[in-house]
Q: What sequence folds into this?
């Protein structure tokens, strides 16, 4: 979504590129990927303003796609965003700048969602959480909905996903349960309410990040494990892609698809987690009085 | 939660460890003018009596008792603490490292495999040795 708006990103800062199509003014027919913006700034720095920490590209202030001033509440987040901008060489690759994208989403809120709507969207993933759809053969005592055919996959899913479900049950004091039907398990209302009230304790920015991570990993449980620092990003991505990894081990890997997906998911999950943590923390400085 | 205390990474203050390290340095002829690291203040004689301490430790839950005992002295008090800030920072650093690594890898994959689009008409003509006609006034 942001790639389409990247030309308006610095509307207040730089003149627009000429609106030539890829085939030229003569009416071209071919497809060429959209021309990437060249890096037009030398230095990136941060400064503190009223709304928070701002990013300066040379002497110009960075703005969001909706032309608002780009201001973040946390200095560490500002430094990370500035690093992203600084690490672009020659051309600007917006698809690598995940933290910038997240900040833009939080600032602009283009889908105009309120906090309640975000929380509802996040908890909705509980019903179709990835860690439900595992495998369980006839010998499985927990009647959880899991694929039955490849027994090795069944075993793998049982070994990998059960601990994380058990952790979530213990940590949030909920009963997550499991079922055999294709519709997935029945989530009791108390579980849903617990998660809703837990998510309500985060601020708006952190919620945007949480919802982003949940959407990427397709699992509320795994996202909560990441936010609570129970599992690492690599492990969460592995658990989310367990079946794919199993198939890769069995049938081989296609680098331009599997590796690409893996790296993209890792980058997005890591960016989302970092974003949530940096937005939820606050730091204070307390000066000690020197005693003579 | 009790198990987390056992993962505290190191204890500078363990007297046996410090003494062993200093002995090792002395044997190699390295003379330390001052200690290599500052240990936190050890609980020395001012404090509860050993009997009282042992009684307090016996009231702890089992992992705490084992951990509070230390490796060499079952009834001693350890100076190891759970440093949550350290773990949080470590997690954040690991997450950022994962982000940077995967972004770099992704950019490399993108550069290697991503389609470059079709050739322009000029390039296609150039492949077979032709040049497109130049019509300064436009067509027609």
A:
């Amino acid at each position: 979504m942001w790639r389409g708006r990247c030309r308006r990103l610095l509307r207040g800062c730089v003149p627009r590129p000429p609106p030539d199509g890829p085939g030229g003014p003569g009416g071209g027919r071919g497809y060429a990927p959209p021309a990437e913006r060249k890096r037009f700034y030398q230095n990136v720095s941060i400064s503190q303003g009223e709304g928070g920490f701002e990013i300066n590209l040379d002497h110009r202030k960075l703005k969001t796609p909706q032309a608002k001033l780009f201001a973040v509440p946390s200095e560490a987040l500002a430094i990370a965003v500035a690093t992203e901008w600084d690490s672009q060489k020659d051309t600007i690759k917006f698809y690598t700048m995940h933290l910038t994208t997240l900040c833009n989403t939080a600032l602009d809120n283009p889908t105009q969602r309120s906090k309640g709507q975000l929380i509802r969207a996040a908890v909705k993933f509980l019903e179709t959480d990835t860690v439900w759809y595992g495998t369980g053969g006839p010998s499985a005592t927990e009647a959880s909905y899991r694929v039955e055919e490849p027994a090795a996959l069944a075993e793998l899913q049982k070994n990998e996903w059960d601990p994380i479900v058990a952790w979530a049950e213990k940590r949030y004091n909920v009963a997550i349960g499991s079922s055999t039907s294709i519709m997935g398990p029945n989530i009791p209302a108390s579980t849903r309410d617990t998660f809703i009230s837990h998510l309500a304790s985060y601020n708006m920015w952190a919620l945007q990040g949480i919802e982003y991570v949940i959407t990427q990993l397709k699992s509320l449980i795994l996202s909560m494990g990441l936010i609570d620092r129970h599992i690492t990003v690599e492990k969460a991505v592995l658990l989310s892609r367990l079946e794919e990894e199993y198939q890769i081990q069995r049938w081989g890997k296609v680098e331009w698809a599997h590796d690409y997906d893996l790296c993209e998911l890792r980058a997005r999950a890591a960016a989302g987690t970092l974003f949530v943590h940096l937005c939820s923390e606050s730091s204070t400085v307390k000066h000690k009085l020197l005693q003579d | 939660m009790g198990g987390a205390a056992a993962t505290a990474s190191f204890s500078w203050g363990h007297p046996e460890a410090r003494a062993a390290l200093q002995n090792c340095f002395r044997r190699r002829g390295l003379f330390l003018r001052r200690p290599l690291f500052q240990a936190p203040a050890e609980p020395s004689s001012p404090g509860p009596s050993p009997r009282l301490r042992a009684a307090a430790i016996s009231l702890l839950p089992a992992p705490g008792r084992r951990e509070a005992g230390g490796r060499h002295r079952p009834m001693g008090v350890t100076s190891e603490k759970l440093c949550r800030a350290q773990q949080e920072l470590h997690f954040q650093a690991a997450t950022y490292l994962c982000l940077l690594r995967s972004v770099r890898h992704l950019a490399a994959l993108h550069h290697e495999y991503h389609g470059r689009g079709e050739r322009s008409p000029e390039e296609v003509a150039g492949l077979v040795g032709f040049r497109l006609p130049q019509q300064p006034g436009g067509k027609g």
Notes: The helical segments of chain B are 2-5, 15-27, 50-58, 62-69, 84-113, 121-127. Residues 84-113 of chain B form the longest helix (30 residues). The mean pLDDT of chain B is 67.
